Amino acid sequence: MTNILDLIGRFFISGVFLLSGFNKIGNYEGTVGWMESFGIPGLLLIPAIILELVAPILVIIGYQTRIAAGALSLFCIATAIIFHTDFSDQMQVVAFMKNIALAGGFLFLLVNGAKSYCFDKK
Questions:
Q1: Model confidence, pTM
Q2: Distance (Å, whole) CA 57 – CA 71
Q3: Number of domains making up the chain
Q4: pLDDT in tens, 39-51
Q5: Quick one: residue 63, left, alpha or beta (phi over 0 = left, psi -120 to 50 = alpha)?
Q6: Residue 70 and residue 105: Cα distance in Å, rounded?
Q7: Is residue 122 part of a domain?
Q8: What's the average model confidence in pLDDT over 97-117?
Q9: Does 119 reside within a domain?
Q10: Helices 45-61 and 65-83, interaxial angle, to 10°?
């Protein structure tokens, strides 16, 4: 039961990034425009999409979990600071805190790792 809950937890914490990565691909130009409105070069969207698609898959399957979780933790902190610091807007406060909470969850995975069902040596 513990292994199943571990897998479900890793899917839950990672799923939001998979969805976000695919949404960025589907609305590429709109996302570039939104990023540029914050002074972030649109060229950085490509590595963001790659990170949001690859790292969650690694976390879910338990391969290189610590590296992927560390990268996602840094990504969460960076996006919170860059995009969600209008604390006069309650929704931005919530988005900031969600990013920080996700960063904390990924830090937990960075420290503890995760069981891989495909890649662990027997």
A1: 0.88
A2: 13
A3: 1
A4: 999 999 999 999 9
A5: beta
A6: 10
A7: no
A8: 89
A9: no
A10: 140
